[in-house]
Design brief:
heterodimer; A: 614 residues; Methanol Dehydrogenase, Chain A; 6 helices; B: 272 residues; D-Maltodextrin-Binding Protein, domain 2; 8 helices; 12 strands; globular
Amino acid sequence: MTRYCGMGALALAAAALTQACTGARADEDRHAPPHDISATHADSGAFAQPGAAKPGEWTLPGRDFAGTRFSPLAQITPDNVKSLKVAWTFSTGVLHGHEGQPLVVGSTMYLVTPFPNIVYALDLANPTGPAKWVYKPNPDPASQGEACCDIVNRGASYGDGKIVFNTLDNHTIALDAKTGKVAWSVRMGDINLGETTTMAPLIIGDKVITGISGAELGVRGRLAALDLATGREVWKAYSTGPDTDVLIGPDFKAFYPSDQGKDLGVSTWTPDQWKIGGGTTWGWVTYDPGLHLLYYGTANPGVWNPDMRPGDNKWSMTIFARDPDTGKARWAYQLTPHDRWDYDGVNESIPVDLPINGQPRKLLVHFDRNGFAYTMDRTTGQVLLADPYQYTNWATGIDLKTGRPEEVPAKRTKEGVNTTDICPSSTGGRDQQPAAYSPLTHLLYTPTTNLCMDYKGVHTSYIAGTPYVGAEVMMYPGPGGNRGEFIAWDPVAGKKVWGIKERFPVWTGALVTGGGLVFYGTMDGWVKAVDARSGTVLWQFKSGSGHIGNFITYAGPDGKQYVAVYAGVGGWAGAAVFGLSPDDPTGALGFVNAMKDLGDYTAPGGMLYVFALP
Amino acid sequence: MSSRFRSRLGALSATGLLLTAAVPAPRHLRVCADPNNLPFSNRREEGFENRIANLVATDLHASVAYTWWAQRRGFIRNTLNAGRCDVVMGVPADDEMVRTTRPYYASTYVFLTRRADHLDLRSLDDPRLRRLRIGLHFIGDDYHNTPPAQALARRGIVRNVAGYSIYGDYSKPNPPARLVDAVARGEIDVALVWGPFAGYFGRRSAVPLVLAPVPEDTGPTGVPFVFHIAAGVRHGDTALQARLDRVLQARRSDIEAILSRYGVPLAGKEPT
């Protein structure tokens, strides 16, 4: 890794160096606005955000390497947010679920749509004019039939003058950010084997880190690093199989005994089942340049019902810490051994530095689908705290001595047996939609889902000429009846600080700003600005379609602070608006039952909304 | 979507309207089917569901117009419910995603073995199933699986079971056939497989194979192995359903003859 302070002032090194590269001062900005936009909050200016570009930019999926989704911009404040208005809009021309977020590099905004994965480069000096360029990768239409949960895309990363993104048919493509010309394109998977790609790659130094989807279909999960300059594969780390495939070597030191031992990716499965073992990598990747470790989670084990695959099924449902240069694992922690609920472990893990019992600690905060929020030591993988952040009854807690969940036997699913009232449902206390962390409040802000499920009975359905019998998963609102809640979470105390209940699951990623505001959106189409400390909703706006994308903020060439988010309901949660029959409540893996009324509130759409003060 | 299909689509939706509007002589019966899934269907219309659809269309004074779509998650949503066609052949008679006709055949899961091995398996409780190498189709789809997977798991038979994807490698012909090949090649000793696959591909195997129905799994947690198969139309399309029912009933013996030609083991009848 040589380019620490490259074009666009992408900072790729230690915190001190980053500070020097990025600065927190608008006057260093190549694309500096004509007047000082009083952009940064006095305190947040001192918060090192390795990987973050200039204060007015958003060049990585989670803005910085840690994925804090914190921006120091402070023009929009709790006092003036009531005047926020739509500044401009842009139709993506695609109607499916719009997850992910745009990027802003200099005075250009880059969008990646759901399938067919069109990339737009919009000139922020003239956002209503023609796009600077448009790139259409024309992915294989058959990939739509492979994707499990709508044909989403979670966005791109910028580095070294390139926009790098994934297509549903498994191509990782680097485009010249200026011209939209293909720098390289590499096929990372095969749709004929059930593989698709929806995740946003993360650029770390001179490497592109990218994953794969399709655990349901027997895909063997892996994470790969590509050379940013050429697209050549540098390493590939499988989630199952022998240590040599998982890139577990002498440097590996798992904290808990049940994660220690040789070739656990083989021995915790029935013979050969690890070859179709799932553990895909469709969530977010984060990175701590201080420790030089990247973090990500793996998905559910495939493909049998739990009774057919006795054992822990490693390394499904696992947080890995790896050296980005070699891919070698430093530690691993399996969140949900022997999954029976589809609680994928792919949600983001955010590095934050906070004191625990008065001692400064290097922490990793992870809201797992299994309903627990984990505060871990990111150097070792030790769990320091794990508390439920939504109503959770499948386990009474996480044993901090063994790291294992304390399961409630009555809530263990078995195919063909009625197991009722399991909370959270397979959707999790939360799915991939990422949290934000504010260095000003030391709180995380996260969307959540409040659904429970029955996993029962013998249900016949039909695929590929074969009647098959499945568990019938039926989801419904959890206690209180609200299906979602947006919460502020104290990762040191392991406690919710405030929460805003919502009718539907909250499926947008959060944004928190130096101005002290938090932004999130709802599936019925509301954009909300909230006081980061009190949780008071200060402003809201109804969009044309529901939100499942992630908010960003940036400084325009005119010196104003803008907030941007996609509207475009869909995704797993939004399947109900795409003609899944309400007559089959088990549709979308049981999600349809819980979302029957979504169509009463919103309809498909694919728009970018951009807001600013008048 | 092939360009051939695209050019047809406009014309088809118009004729589809005619069909549902009870006009006596519609020109097209719009069927959605998998282009690569013998013995059921393929793009060359060589499957038994292709033949049965032709039979039905002839009696309705129509010809079959296909929309080809791989049978995966979202198949019904993207085909029937998206208006791309009006009929899907070969759905379980209790399928809730569609409105079904009366079933036109019933088949069963079978034990498929090599003739030379003389295993003669007749029961899931046969102790030999604990040591034989067993192959099954897996579905995935969040832990939904075929009935044999459930029945074996309940008996604790898991360590000697290998999974073969029902989706397989779609770039190869008839992906689910790999499970039958695995028996022929000696990769496994027995496949517990849906009858139509076993009957059709078993007959074509160079290594002689035999099949026997998996008997009913009794008890309160038993799983079914026999499934009644019907045609599916959109919910609410009662007119088309009634029309299909009349033809399927009238042509019962012709349908049985087709199924027999494809080696489909019919439930309640000893396989030939």
